[in-house]
Amino acid sequence: MTTAAHRIVILGAGYAGLAAARQALRAKGAQVTVIDARAEFVDRVRLHQALAGQPVRRTDIRKSLERKGIEFVQARVERIDPAARRVELAADGAARGAGWALHYDSLVYALGSRGDRSAVPGAGEFAYSIATPEDLARIPELTGKVAVVGGGATGIELAAELAESRPDLEVELVSAEEPGSWLSAKARDHIRATFDRLGVRVHAGVKVREVTAAGLELVGGERIEAGIVLWCTGFAVPDVAIRSGLAVDADGRVLVDDKLRSRSHPAVYAVGDCALMPGSDGRALRMACATALPAGKYVGASIVSRLRGREPEAHSFGYVLQCISLGRRDAVVQRVRPDDAPTDRVFTGRLGVFVKESIVRAVGGAARLSPLT
Description:
The protein has 373 residues and is of the alpha/beta class. The protein has helices at residues 15-24, 47-51, 61-66, 91-94, 123-126, 133-138, 153-165, 185-198, 240-243, 289-307, 349-367, and strands at 7-11, 31-36, 40-42, 58-60, 71-74, 77-81, 86-89, 100-103, 106-109, 114-115, 127-129, 145-149, 170-175, 201-204, 208-212, 215-218, 223-225, 228-231, 235-236, 254-255, 268-270, 275-276, 321-325, 331-336, 342-348.
C-alpha cells in the first residue's frame, strides 16, 4: 500500500509565501502547493515605478513554480477548516463550477495585505491605492496635480518617482508627520532636500478630514485641489483568518507564537503582513518585504525540520537597513539596529541607489525562485 505524500499548502504567492515554498521543496517526498487568486507576480516594491510609466517585470507564477516542481492553483481562498485540515476555495478563481476544497497536512497562511481607505470619509470613493497590481489598473491617466497621501516609505517613493519621471505633473505630498519621521535627522533632511529639488510640495503635520472629487479637505479647513488622490497610508488584511476561527488581533492579523504558528491552531503557520509576528523585544515586526522574506524562509524550513523529526529553534530576526528610493538617481539607505531603531549612518546618492537596487533585485529573484539569492 502506497503512503500518500505529505501535502504542504501555502496560501499566498507574495514574498512570504514564495519564500516558504522555496524552503518547503527540501522536504523529501512532500507535495508543495501554492494557492493565489493572482496568476502574475509583480514586485510590490516596484509598483510606484510602474505607476510612473516605467517598465516593470511581470512573472507568470504558474510557470515559475512548476519549473521547480511546485503545484500552483489559481483560486480565491474562502476559509480554512482546521479540524478537517482543508482549505475551501471560491469557484470564481478556480473555474471549477462550484466551490471546492483542498486537503493539507501542513498549512502556511501568507495572504498578505492590501491598501485600506476606510478610515477617512470619501477616500474609498475618490482616492486610489497602489498596494497591488489590480490597484494600478483602476487608476486613470495621471494629469495635472496629483496628491499623494502618506509620509511613509510608500508615499515618499511614489511622490519622488512621479516628480522625477513625470515633470508634467504637479506632485504634492500630504502627511500627518514629517516624511520619514521614524528615520534619523540626516535621512529626513535628505528626503526634504530631494523633494525640494524635484519640486514636490510637502504638507507635513496635517490630517485629511475628507477626500472629495476636487481633492482633499484637511482638519482645520484648508483645501488641497488635486485631480488624482493616491492613498499611501493604512493597510488591511484579508478576513479569511477571522472566518476560519483563528485567533487574530483587532486588525485581523493572525496571532502567532515564537515559532510563527497560530496561537489558537498550532498546526497552521502564519507569516508576512497577515500575521502579528513578534520581534525579539516582543514588539510586532513591521509590514515589509524585509520582514516577510526571511520569515517565510523560516516557516518553510520549520516544516522541513519537523518532517525530519527535529523541533526548530524559535524565530529570531533583526533588521539591518531601511531603504527608500527617491527616483532612479537617488535613495536613502538608513542603517538600523536589530530592533529597527535608526543609527547615525545613512547612505544617499549613487551609493544609496546601488544598495537599494541590489536589495530590490535580490528580493525579486528570491520571490521568483530564481538563482539570484
